[in-house]
Amino acid sequence: MLERRNDRMSDFSFRMMAVVMKLMDWVWPRLDRRVLKFGIQPGMTVVDYGCGPGRYTRRFARLVGPQGKVYAVDVQELALGMVGQEMVRNGLQNIVPTLAKGYDCGLPDECADRVFALDMFFGVSQPTAFLKELKRITRPDGVLVIDDGHQSRAKTLAKIRASGEWMVYEHNDDHLKCRPKKYSRQ
């Protein structure tokens, strides 16, 4: 089991995960096809929550184009350093690396058209608090794209339902798409 402190991997574990992901992408390149199924359009604001080394972030940045924005959010400082390197290497200026403190990412309310929680939800120790934060940053007509990672679909669905924040409106073997449940702001 990976060492975690408040849902944060140790630096060593994070570096090992980044190497494994790079090898996976080289051996089994599927991310470009996967990302095209997420409905990202030019000019959108996208949040890659739990961005890790940025393997999705740079793909999102290309899809939203220069008029769009991608917030690369992670609790791991090393992740943001790797995202910064990707920005320079790929000439991407529409990425905003953002360090989260626990489940508080500090982004403005309702700023995102799409929020992604990919390859990470299984490791969240307080899913209701996490999903509440994702709802806060998602526009009322926005979409959360989330996957199971290393947990069963039944467990993912149970966590989403228990939060009371999201309605799953579409799912397939790869991911789920959710809309924020309606609420009134005080």
Report on the architecture of this protein.
With 186 residues, this protein is α/β, with parallel strands linked by helices. The protein has one domain (4-180): 3-Layer(aba) Sandwich (Rossmann fold). Helix content is 36%, strand content 25%. It has 6 helices and 9 strands. The chain has helices spanning 11-27, 31-36, 57-64, 77-90, 127-137, 153-163; strands at residues 4-5, 8-9, 45-49, 69-74, 95-99, 112-117, 138-146, 166-171, 176-180. A 7-stranded mixed sheet has the order 5-4-3-6-7-9-8, sandwiched between helices. Helix 5 (127-137) crosses helix 6 (153-163). The radius of gyration is 15 Å and the shape is globular. The termini are far apart. Mean pLDDT is 89; it is low at 1-5.
Q: How would you characterize the largest beta sheet?
A: 7 strands, mixed
| Unreliable stretches | 1-5
Give the total of domains: 1
CATH topology: Rossmann fold
Q: Which homologous superfamily in CATH is the superfamily?
A: Vaccinia Virus protein VP39
> Which strand order does the major sheet show?
5-4-3-6-7-9-8
Cα end-to-end separation: 42 Å
Q: Write down how many β-strands occur, each being a DSSP E stretch of 2 or more residues.
A: 9
- Strand residue percentage: 15-25%
What is the helical fraction, as a range of percent? 25-40%
Q: What is the correct CATH architecture?
A: 3-Layer(aba) Sandwich
Query: What's the helix count?
Result: 6
Broad shape: globular
> What's the helix-strand series?
EEHHEHEHEEHEHEE
> What structural category arises from helix and sheet content?
alpha/beta
Reading off the top of the CATH hierarchy, the class is best stated as Alpha Beta
Query: Average pLDDT across residues?
Result: 89
Write down the Rg: 15 Å
